[in-house]
Amino acid sequence: MNQFAQVPMKAIGPIKIVGPVVNEEVLVPLATYEIPVWPSTNRGAKVSRESGGIFTTLIDERMTRSFAVEASNAAQALIVASQLKARKAELETVVAGCSRFAKLVDLHFQVVGKILYVRFEFTTGDAAGHNMVTKATEQLLYWTEQQYPALRYVSVSSNYCIDKKVSAVNGILGRGKYVVTEIIIPREVCQKTLKTTPEKIVELNTKKNLLGSIIAGSLRSANAHFANVLLAFYLATGQDAANIVEGSQGFTFAEMQGDAVYFSATLPNIIVGTIGNGKDLPFVQENLQLLGCLQARETGDNSRRLAVICAAAVMCCELSLIAALTNPSELMRAHVAFERNQSEVK
Q1: 335 with 295, same domain?
Q2: How far is CA 138 from the centre of its chain?
Q3: Among 34, 182, 246, 318, which one carries the catalytic annotation?
Q4: DSSP string covering 282-303, please?
Q5: What is the mean pLDDT of each run of 10 residues along the chain (346 residues)?
Q6: What Cα–Cα distance (Å) separates residue 250 from each residue in 315, 317, 321?
Q7: 94 lies in which domain range?
Q8: Can the peptide bond before residue 15 be classed as cis, meaning omega within 30 degrees of 0?
Q9: CA 158 to chain centre
Q10: Is residue 131 one of the residues assigned to a domain?
Q11: What is the pLDDT at residue 1?
């Protein structure tokens, strides 16, 4: 018998988003047990409407899988790697033969001892693409073994991908949708809505997100809590929630621009889709419809829209938390008020 875990869910916003992918105000559903995420994201959404919107740029998109094979020695592994690079057109044909939507865009390799690791990068249309790229990589592995029979199979997934684990390679080479969000917040909005000043936001971001992350040894990550909204958004829209591991690696940046604050959240690894596992659940369909991500668009447009909205929601809550932390005790008071229905910490 199928059972379902119930997670509280609420639509917040609307968030005003500006850019070529999304250019409108959007209500965003978030499913979470962390109740303060809703009012905090809502406060950021209000700032977006008061400050001309969140400007969004989709930098890149690709989904990855990597296989590993063993050669007789490192020199032989290098020869195979070089030849695979030169035969990319043939590899593209292999992928086209097993998928209507997967397109091979690039490949990279590493040689460790006599083991060859090959990382393939694909576009996957409106799907997040986990299964699609695994199937394509499996066919590429079969083809490689036929072309180079001296190679020995190690694994169709070799961790050079790298899936649901913290790494440097995903930020450098890309995995998922790479989205940058930006907003310029006037001083009066900072003071009225965020209850702080532009200078305090810039100073705290430097001392907490940048320096604090460095001393903690964070890997390609300098943010306050991207994971909170990513998880809430992923659960509400039927995504593979484990992908918040690489998704939460990203950067918050702030600087003064005249009398206003420029605030940016960069998320290089947003992994979302609008078709595939979990997307046929009634509540997911309702939420994707609310987000405008079930339209008859060109392949991939719905998932791009979803990623951009996700990034904007993450920015809203990130901004609100940074603002709250500039004021002593505000964070704890908010948690107590929203989670325990108390008016003050006792």
Answers
A1: yes
A2: 25
A3: 34
A4: HHHHHHHHHTT-SS--STTHHH
A5: 85 97 98 95 98 98 98 98 97 95 97 98 96 97 97 97 94 96 98 98 98 96 97 98 96 98 98 94 96 86 97 98 88 68 45
A6: 11, 14, 16
A7: 62-155
A8: no
A9: 22
A10: yes
A11: 57
Give the E-state strand segments of 97-138 in sequence order: 103-112, 115-123
Q: Is 129 in contact with 175 (CB distance < 8 Å)?
A: no
The answer to the question of residue 162 being in a domain is: no
Distance CA(49)–CA(62), nearest Å, equals 31
Given 25, 145, 240, 301, the catalytic residue: 240
Please state, in angstroms and rounded to a whole number, the distance separating the CA atoms of residues 28 and 139: 38
How far apart CA 21 and CA 19 sit, in angstroms, is 6
DSSP state of 159: S
Q: 50, 106, 145, 335: which one is catalytic?
A: 335
301 is a catalytic site residue: no
| Entry pTM | 0.94
> Rounded to whole angstroms, how far apart are CA atoms 177 and 174?
8
- We report the CATH number of the domain holding residue 127 as 3.30.70.420
pLDDT at 344: 44
The SS3 call for residue 168 is: coil
Q: DSSP 3-state assignment of 72?
A: coil
> Is 275 within 8 Å of 127 (Cβ atoms)?
yes
Per-residue exposure over 91-112, b if at least 16 CB sit within 10 Å of its own CB, e if not: beebbeeebebbbbbebbbbbe
Does the annotation count 240 as an active-site position? yes
183: domain CATH number is: 3.90.770.10
Examine the fold and report which residue of 155, 187, 218 is the final residue of a domain before the chain moves on.
Answer: 155
Same structural domain, 249 and 183: yes
Backbone angles phi, psi at 240, to 5 degrees: -75, 100
Does 192 lie in the same domain as 55? Answer: yes
In this structure, are residues 106 and 133 in contact, taking their beta carbons and an 8 Å threshold? no
295 shares its domain with 239: yes
Among residues 155, 188, 220, the one where a domain terminates is 155
User: What phi and psi, each to the nearest 5 degrees, are found at residue 215?
Assistant: -70, -25
With respect to residue 168, please indicate whether it lies within any of the assigned structural domains.
no
Is 225 tagged catalytic? no
